[in-house]
Amino acid sequence: MAAALLFHLAIGFPAWLVQVIVTRGTFGGATLVPHLLATSVVVHLLPIVTGIACLGRARLPKIALAAALAMQIVPVLLSRFATPPDLNVNLAHAPWPPVAAALPTVFRFQLAESAAAVVALAIVFAMWNAWVAYSK
After folding, report:
1. Mean pLDDT across the chain
2. pTM of the prediction?
3. Helices marked H in the chain — which ranges?
4. Angle between helices 34-55 and 13-23 in degrees, nearest 10
């Protein structure tokens, strides 16, 4: 549970929020679809709410860092070998279009994305544990 909460706080929710902002809520579609956006909000907030409810004010164990990073990397690797390139599931075959000019190859993109994930996970991990320590 700790790793899942850490993943969603550090990677899942921020990445989703950037996607919503960049696409203005259309997720690459031609228009905004309110029920799609509403469902997406629930899917991305519910794991955080559930994780906080389950963990309360418990510290995140160090193993949660590695497990959360694996939650980022493993699906990309599986998608790379198990999905067609034209679907670009988990951005495993091509960079995210808004950053493709700066990171033109999937290797560079995934390297930058993984580095950003490590930094985000470390920051959220430290902030959560500092908050827990402070609030007790």
Report:
1. 93
2. 0.90
3. 2-7, 13-23, 34-55, 63-82, 106-135
4. 160
* Tokens encoding 98: 């808004």
Is 20:13 a contact under the CB 8 Å cutoff? no
- Per the listing, tokens 């519910």 go with 46
Residue indicated by tokens 């995210």: 96
Cβ neighbours for 50, distance < 8 A, ≥ 6 positions apart:
none
pLDDT along the chain (136 residues), means of 10: 96 92 77 86 94 94 97 96 95 94 97 97 97 87
d(C-alpha 55, C-alpha 37), whole Å:
28
Specify whether the CB–CB gap between 36 and 27 falls below 8 A. yes
